Amino acid sequence: MKRIITFGEIMGRICPENFQRFRQSMPGKLDMTFAGAEANVASSIAMLGGKVRFVTALPNNEMTEACLQVLKGIDVDTTGIKLTDYGRFGLYFVERGANQRPSRVMYDRDYSAVSMTKGEAYDWCELLKDGAWLHTTGITPALSEVCAHATEVAVRTAKEKGLTVSCDLNFRKKLWQWQNGTSPSILAEKTMRAILPYVDVVIANEEDAHDVLGISAGDTDIEGGQLDIDKYVDVAKEVVKQFPNVKKVAITLRESLSATHNNWGAMLYDAASDTAHFAPLNEQGEYMPYEIKAIVDRVGGGDSFGAGLVFALNTPELSKPDQAIRFAVAASCLCHSINGDFNYSSRSEVEALMGGSGSGRVVR
Fold first, then answer.
1. Whether this model's pTM surpasses 0.90
2. Of 79, 105, 175, 183, most Cβ neighbours within 10 A?
3. CATH homologous superfamily for 3-354?
């Protein structure tokens, strides 16, 4: 496998223990780990066995030293991390939901180092020279106008160097605030439409295509657990119609029955063959999502899907669209059983689930 590069922010993730709320936990203990969409993808790819470099900017302090130690410990190449004498280490706070109480996320990312670092400050020619693939998301350009420009510089340079580029649309309404007087959805659409002409693989969830590009999926009720899955083929085709450079569109299909009970699957549309592949499938070859009845932590689940897809598409024996989507969905299904954003699942564990080993029996 050639090297994969991801670009975005890594933060401290602060979360109460045992599904508690902050008002229950403070004063008291809180759990802190490291997280961030593109860092989540990088870490998962590394743990699946891939070669990956993470690019970001972090303040030169002890928190960053701890973060670098974690990333290096799971074999993420950190040579693309720029240490700065300005900015701060971003944070976000999570209350994990359970049953009918949803999870809640609060951001504290203003003036983070990456949000203040211009695209030209990164040595993209050096960072990309041994790479085959660049991955980023719609979260990074949501942080600031500087980050939006840096993302555009990254994807444009990657295409000039011949890399494949993937982007997870990842619409976050709370983050698109950097242009006064412009609504988050309008700002996101304007910004992402400038980035997507350089993208080969688009990743989205049930709502992203609508929120970012205004493309809807028919009669879908996500919160009611009802998805009109056939309509997502039309969504993918419309994305390719609007951006002919896009070769594949992946859409995750989450049916939220409660915070801890979801049905989970995905679709991968291949523009070259004009074919949509769904996963998982039952023995009759029909779409039948994984039923996840006791979610441990769903934050980071979409990133683990993106990581699984990028890893599979860069692994010859997994790279056919039908295999790649099966691998990606299985990887992200496992991530729902793991606390924190990082998907601590191995390739062999993912392939075991792909092969039908989903009983959860003890492996001795």
1. yes
2. 175
3. Ribokinase (3.40.1190.20)
